[in-house]
Amino acid sequence: MGRIVRGILVSCLLVSVTRVAPAQVSLDDVKERVTGRPGRPAPGANRPANSNPQQNTPPVAKPAAPPSVVFLVDLTGSMLSNEKRVKDELIKALNELADGQMFNLIATYADQTKSFTPKLVPAGKASRKNAIAFVEAFKVVGGNGQLEKSLQNACAMKPDILWFISDGDFQGPDTTASITDELLKIATPAKVKISTSLRLASHDVAQGYGRAALAKLAQATGGLCVNDAGDPATEADLTKPTEPKSVDQPETPSIFIIPAPTAKPH
């Protein structure tokens, strides 16, 4: 009964007001006077600034995916003194990968190159376990014959970061300089960033030219070169080793640093 009465009142008021001021009063105005509830705003009518909460909400940073990484491991003759350290540090680096982070490993020997898998794989319990077994089987042998091929295989995977795990000693200063240039001819057009660690070039033979080669590979490709202490390398580090931190201890982070991703607003 109440609805019928309100309907009659609305109709009567509408007739009344449209006769008096048809251009100034709308049907929604009449409904608001009778029911006490506002009508719908007219199309195009201005709304309060906070009528749409989404318009006033600041953009939320979307977590960036962790960078994909390929570890290219030099297992040629001069790396013999680094064999245990490389295994220990690689295993730490594998355990530091985020779940789902894409990665792979490539080992380069004197006469062959071996990949953990044919392509990048996401880090997880099973893939880490298998990758660690792959690393534990590393054995250093002589020669440098497969470095270029191994780098080509690594670049073909298009990783965000390529960790070249080497002492930078490719059988003498002249051969080292030549091979370094050949490696850059492969990495530069592929736009792959090479990261290196001077910690592995601490033996006497590689003190000069080996450290310089590792720094050149990183600098020329926009990668990261870290000194013996795990900090970004400087010119002084190329000739005089920095006092290393306790990087060989199990509880310390891997020397093969992978930068954290930067969140992007969306």
Question: What topology does this entry show?
Answer:
Layout: H1 2-20, H2 27-35, H3 53-56, E1 61-62, E2 69-74, H4 83-96, E3 102-108, E4 113-115, E5 121-122, H5 125-136, H6 147-156, E6 161-165, H7 173-190, E7 194-197, H8 209-221, E8 225-226, E9 264-265
Parallel strand pairs: 2-3, 2-6, 6-7, 7-8
Antiparallel strand pairs: 1-9, 3-4, 3-5
Helix pairs in contact: 1-2, 4-5, 6-7, 7-8
Q: Can you walk me through this structure?
A:
It is a single chain. With 266 residues, the protein is α/β, with parallel strands linked by helices. It has 8 helices and 9 strands. Strand 6 (161-165), helix 7 and strand 7 form a beta-alpha-beta unit. It has helices at residues 2-20, 27-35, 53-56, 83-96, 125-136, 147-156, 173-190, 209-221, and strands spanning 61-62, 69-74, 102-108, 113-115, 121-122, 161-165, 194-197, 225-226, 264-265. The model is unreliable at 12-23 (pLDDT under 50). Strands 2, 3, 4, 5, 6, 7 and 8 form a 7-stranded mixed beta sheet that branches. Strands 1-9 form a two-stranded antiparallel ribbon. It folds into 2 domains: 1-37; 69-259, 3-Layer(aba) Sandwich (Rossmann fold), CATH 3.40.50.
